[in-house]
Amino acid sequence: MNTASLKTAIITGGSGGIGQAIATRLAADGFAVVINYAVKDAAGFGCTPMN
Q: Is residue 11 classed as helix, strand or coil in its secondary structure?
């Protein structure tokens, strides 16, 4: 991946629902995605590292 063209998205509420769908789509489109969530039990729910 060319880091000169790397874009980063920060998704709040990204562990489920619409936030998860947005995070998944942006990651598939080549964005580096940072996911924020408010509930400790949601950590990692629905999140898979993508290389």
A: strand
Alpha-carbon distance of 51 to 42, in angstroms, equals 22
Rounded to whole angstroms, the Cα distance separating 36 from 23 reads 10
Q: Look-up: residue for tokens 């990651």?
A: 27
pLDDT tens string, the chain, 51 residues long: the values are 565 568 999 998 887 888 888 988 998 898 988 888 777 665 555 556 555
Alpha helices per DSSP H over 1-51: 17-28
Enter the pTM of the model: 0.67
Number of other residues whose CB lies within 10 A of the CB of residue 1? 8
Measured in degrees and rounded to the nearest 5, phi and psi for residue 22 equal: -65, -45
